[in-house]
Structure prediction request, 495 residues.
Amino acid sequence: MKYTTKELVCRWEDQRDIKNLMGKYSNCIILNREHQIMPMFWAQRDENVCLALNDGYYKGNAAVEAYYSAAYERNKLVASLLKKRFPGELGDMSDEEVYGIGPFKVKPMACPVIEIAEDGKTAKGLWYCQGAYSEVEASGPVAHWTWGYFAVDFVREEDDWKILHMMHFNDVDAITGQSWGKPQAAYPDLPEFIELKNFEYPAYTKTEELYPIYTLRRSLPKTPGIPEPYRTFSETFSYGF
Amino acid sequence: MDKISRNYSDEELITRVWDVENIKKLVHKRVYYLAEDRRADELKELWVSDPKHQKTASFGRNWGYYTGMDEIKAYYVDNHNTRLLEQKELNAADDLNVGNMYAHPASTGLVELAGDGKSAKGMWYCIAQETTALADGTADARWILEKVAVDFLKEDDDWKIWHIVIAMDLNCEAGEAYEKQSVYVDWDNDPVKCEFGVPTIEKLLHDPTFNWWDNYPFMPEPYASFCDEISYGPEGFVITADKVFAAGEGRNYK
Prediction:
């Protein structure tokens, strides 16, 4: 495909906007603003939006929104438990003020391979994420390495790029300070955080092992496909289900 | 080197912008090929294909260079596959690479496109990890910190890898404290060195004992057109002039 100079500049700006979108997505997770992710970054006009994790996927706006809302509710629960645990430090603060205390989820986006469709209506991107999260669990605060992939289909709505499909697959989810190649030693539960054991995310639209997490018996999996140049979305593969 | 021209037309400028984007994309694609251990595909699809360029292609690590695509393939693909077959038998695994994992995400990209637009040089840093399944039912999981320097050539309209140097700064077992690492690397048992084998040109390129002054591979600088003295191939190797080497303090220096 031969583009004019102006078209090449526009396509470069499209690529930059897509990188910025994923940078903002990552920042919202760091800031524990999962409840803002759906309206800010996901397509609103397409009912086929899909968020896939290692063990299943959420399909449709309501299902994807429910997942992010659950993450928000969990953050609230963690904050309330920490407030009880540390009454001297947090006891006088409102629920709004303590919201966000506890979880620290880092999802840096690296190694982008982005392809914008020739027709300019959609785009695809693949990122490697060498991430980590420190989360309050039933055993208290625990830090994990999480390395894996974000693979995303984007669609243009008005002048903005939005997420249509996202795969967030982890290769590793392992406690830091221990080798992921040896049996990991879990920490004992603590009574003040035991309530978190009962917390559940909404059931997937479909539960299915989409990407196996690392174990000693795992065969080397295929990464989500690397985007290749394409003319229009119907002529390429999809990151959706 | 010729003086670098900065007088580009709009069309030339946007072409140069996309050249840099496509070079970064090429290196990022290599990350995903590595994750799937698609080494043969990497050489076929991401490296130079012109026979003249293949003859002068090189793959360097801390201990020297393999030169020419045949030598590179023998090390990078054939020897690697032999080792995987041995591992599979030793571990009584059903398939190659069971329990193995490769992650070499490239960050901090730095690309200099030649003034003539025919070649480019780039440098990245990887906080990588490799995991190798062992026969005892555990795995050797390692952090590997490495600098990756690459010369690129444009073949037809596509950018391709021509020379690569992967200079390891640190290789340590996951879950072990840094302060317990040996100051001097035990290269006789270093898994990355063992895998690298005996290269076409055996030479210490980068000594991790003295990372802070061992500036090889050197950072790319703006340039007009490619020449041997700036190459990441063996012809461009420069011994880091340094008081520590001169004083003979670099134990691993040869």
